[in-house]
């Protein structure tokens, strides 16, 4: 049954992505915040629906009480699939995702991250990437929006260990914002670079806030421990 679901889902996913990339071109005329809400409602909402009703992947949210009610903060999430990049913006109000600049150059679709005010990283060198992150983060902080970063810098397979990059360290130190860690198990059902998907329940677990102003080394150790320990626990459920 998963094979049939996956084939139907991928048709709906790629076909729908093309459809919405064309159908929502008019948001270029809207103010940034309204354009972002429109993309979240129609395109991201569409992905949530087909994931639920075609692929039979349910979504469970834990620790919602840990999400700040307003203001800017750093949302540091485990990254195992494309799912979290498409669904977290529905759960978290108007986040700015730190993403690679190449995504903004995809025909039609690339206008989404630009218009939504995401933080595109110039990965020409490590120093350029860090400057891109800090410059964009300062803008987003002034807008009082959350900043979504994947500390490992890339998708990992469930249970795979990969180092946390210097970007999260620099962001915490220079921007002076609290961190909301996120553990998840998305890779079990929507694997990295995997055509085939699995039905089941995806869990996003929002963990207790790491306050701003801590010793950077201690804060980074706490962040990694929280995300990795709790993500591993979700794999055991």
Question: What characteristics describe this protein?
Answer:
about 240 residues; seven-stranded mixed β-sheet; Glycerol-3-phosphate (1)-acyltransferase
If you had to describe this structure to a student in words, what would you say it looks like?
The chain has helices at residues 2-23, 32-53, 83-91, 111-115, 126-142, 166-175, 216-236; strands at 57-62, 74-77, 96-100, 119-121, 147-149, 179-184, 200-206. It is α/β, with parallel strands linked by helices. The chain has a single domain (58-236), classed as Glycerol-3-phosphate (1)-acyltransferase. The model has no long low-confidence stretch (mean pLDDT 94).
Give a quick precis of the structure.
This protein has helices spanning 2-23, 32-53, 83-91, 111-115, 126-142, 166-175, 216-236, and strands spanning 57-62, 74-77, 96-100, 119-121, 147-149, 179-184, 200-206. The chain is α/β, with parallel strands linked by helices.
Radius of gyration: 17 Å
* Number of H- or I-type helical stretches: 7
Top CATH class: Alpha Beta
Number of strands: 7
User: Which outline best applies?
Assistant: globular
Order of strands side by side in the largest beta sheet? 1-7-6-2-5-3-4
CATH architecture: 3-Layer(aba) Sandwich
Please provide the ordered H/E string of secondary-structure elements.
HHEEHEHEHEHEEH
Count of individual domains: 1
CATH superfamily: Glycerol-3-phosphate (1)-acyltransferase
The percent range for strand residues is: 5-15%
| Biggest pleated sheet | 7 strands, mixed
Mean pLDDT: 94
SS-based class: alpha/beta
Low-confidence stretches: none
Fraction of residues in helix? 40-55%
Distance between the termini: 22 Å
CATH topology title: Glycerol-3-phosphate (1)-acyltransferase
